[in-house]
Amino acid sequence: MDIGEINNQFKKMEEWCAYRNEIIHALMNKNVLSVNQELKDRALEGMEIARYFDSQLKILKKGNK
Question: N or C terminus of the chain with fewer C-beta within 10 Å?
Answer without folding.
Answer: C
